[in-house]
Write a structure and sequence with these properties.
Length: 276
């Protein structure tokens, strides 16, 4: 006779009191980690473990942030630099999403598309953006197009390859079940393949926007007047470490906030991720 599961008096199987490894909220741990990093920064800078040229104090950095926000630090307020950087990064990111995700899906479902797009993507994907930056300047000049294009190329490859990997990871049983119910090829792609690949695609979007912010400084080396990367680059030329750290903090904070937003989008769009 099969052994019955304990019901706990409710008629339903009692759930285990042991959580799956890795589950549960981690907000408190994250806050404690950030507080520890901030405290270590304060102690190291105030006790002069490193000279101010190498590690300015947190108070100095936030003073420079306030001065930059009021337009007293550089030739333009922080909002102007921030706005131009956001325009370049998110324009390139949106263009990459519009083009790379369909190409990645096509590579996953069609050997013809895979044969066409896989070699050029795999060829340029390992190249650092600074390697082909001179070529982009020669071909497209020093206007905004070259800056956006450089960031776009940095975002494109991880999006396309992860979209392809997401499509290839779809269960064959789901696809055969859809075909057995009379679905056409396009219906299978639209209602089975793409929804199943969405977790991989959303993760790729989080990764690619990180590549976009990483490439920002390189992009704004191309005759940029405004931008966070340009501000950091100019400050480094004059050994203004406090402004460099301020720019790094702003760029990192924006990227982290966008990553948190993408996590919320994942919870809404693919609530089954990690639960199946």
């Amino acid at each position: 006779m099969a052994k019955q599961q304990p019901t706990g008096g409710t008629g339903r199987p009692k759930t285990s009191r042991y959580a799956t490894p890795g589950e549960g909220p981690s907000t408190a741990i994250s806050v404690a980690t950030m507080a520890a990093i901030g405290a270590l920064w304060w102690i190291a800078s105030h006790y002069r473990w490193l000279p101010p040229l190498f590690l300015p104090t947190p108070e100095t950095v936030f003073t420079r942030l306030w001065e930059s926000a009021r337009g007293e630090l550089t030739d333009a307020p922080l909002a102007t630099h921030f706005g131009w950087s956001m325009f370049r990064v998110f324009t390139a990111f949106l263009l990459a999403c519009i083009t790379a995700i369909p190409i990645g899906i096509a590579m996953g479902v069609s050997r013809i598309a895979r044969g066409i797009f896989d070699p050029p993507i795999e060829f340029y994907r390992p190249l650092p953006p600074l390697a082909y930056l001179p070529l982009i300047i020669i071909w497209f000049g020093i206007d905004e197009l070259s800056k956006v294009l450089l960031i776009y190329l940095a975002c494109f490859a991880p999006l396309a390859m992860s979209s392809r990997a997401g499509v290839r990871s779809v269960s064959q049983e789901q696809i055969h079940a859809a075909y057995s119910m009379g679905a056409s090829r396009w219906q299978v792609i639209a209602h089975v393949v793409i929804p199943a690949a969405m977790p991989e695609i959303l993760t790729a979007m989080r990764i690619s926007i990180g590549f976009g912010w990483t490439t920002l400084v390189a992009a704004e080396m191309v005759a940029a007047t405004y931008g966070l990367g340009q501000m950091v680059l100019n400050a480094s030329n004059f050994l203004r470490t406090d402004i460099v750290v301020m720019g790094i903090v702003v760029i990192g904070a924006v990227a982290y906030l966008f990553d948190l937003l993408m996590r919320q989008v994942e919870r809404v769009v693919v609530p089954w991720k990690g639960k199946v």
